[in-house]
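Lab notebook, entry 370. We have the chain sequence and a SMILES string for pyridoxal-5'-phosphate, and the next step in the workflow is to get a structural model of the bound complex before anyone spends time on docking refinements. Request logged below.

Task: model protein plus pyridoxal-5'-phosphate, output structure tokens.
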Amino acid sequence: MTVPFLDLTRGYHRIRDEILLAVERTLESGWYILGQEVAGFEREFAEYCGTHYAVGVGSGTDALHLALRACGVKPGEGVVAVPNTAVPTVSAIVAAQACPVFVDIDPRTMTLDPEQLRRRLAASGASPRITAVVPVHLYGGAADMGPILEVAREYGLKVIEDAAQAHGVEYGGRKVGSLGDAGCFSFYPTKNLGACGDAGIVVTNDAGVAERLRMLRNYGEQSKYCSRTDGFNSRLDELHAAMLRVKLRHLEEWIRERRQRAALYTELLAAEPIALPLEPPGERHGYHLYVVRSPHRDALQSHLQSRGIATIVHYPTPVHRQPAYLALGHAGGSFPEAERACAEVLSLPLYPELTEAEVRRVAEAVRSAR
Ligand SMILES: Cc1ncc(COP(=O)(O)O)c(C=O)c1O
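Result returned:
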């Protein structure tokens, strides 16, 4: 038995009829850009997250880029990010003409370490002037938002959450994405809530941020053919919105299924010499990915591959060591915890349609790697 890392067709077949109805309804409407489906999905997703507003955009990367601009980040200002994230967290900061400032992670959660954030901000003569922070809710585990928000308030930083991997994740009883000034989601097809192509959204409680986002995604237009600001074309389109409305109705069920499979992995792997994902008190992990850590990661991955089990490393190279960002001047060893995480992490197959037999097969193969 081979186990693929992910099979999106299984998810599609569960809801095929509903999806095709939504597609048909949209095609028959004759209205394909910024219509009722986008408005409806924005309303429903904002309600799901517990925010006043949601603004659909073209991708998760655009969500971050436009949210940074809408929150008032200016060219040349510093924006804090962690190195062990998807490159788009950082490329969005650069797209907003700001300067990425890396801060290391807490090794337990593999997310931004609030203490190191405080130390970086307190460093005298800090340059560039840091005006925002982008905590990443990595793998579906929440960044430690309580202390992060406290530090941000103390230093007057905007908080733009990267919730691309964290649909439905809860921190202190609230959905992540709703905790900072803006929360950015990706609907890349593999995400907990995935489109059939590229799409994204920003949620916020700030009417001004929402208004600026609506302009920024649509040529800067405040009203038809009246551009009040410089802008872009980054609209969520009607077809994606119509399909996402269907999928949103199933999201809680899918998160439950992800959590059941994760719990089974955790039970079966508890005695292994590898670190398993954490779910701190007060958090509901979304298990976008089930990520284990081993100092012998590459050997473990080869072993699993030889048993027909596909795994992925999210992410092998920290962003500050990517060729595109070497010019920022951070040598290897600058962010030891993030670098160690990149060398040790391994994502096992996990999605709602993964069968119990497949979970057991993967766990058995991990156990046989000893
Ligand atoms: C943490 C993180 N941030 C940002 C993004 C960018 O999202 P997208 O691929 O929709 O542009 C992704 C998605 O891959 C991600 O995982």
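Notes for the group: The mean pLDDT is 97. Worth checking against the assay data. Residues 59-61, 85-86, 88-89, 136, 162, 164-165, 186, 188, 198, 200 surround pyridoxal-5'-phosphate (CB under 6 Å).
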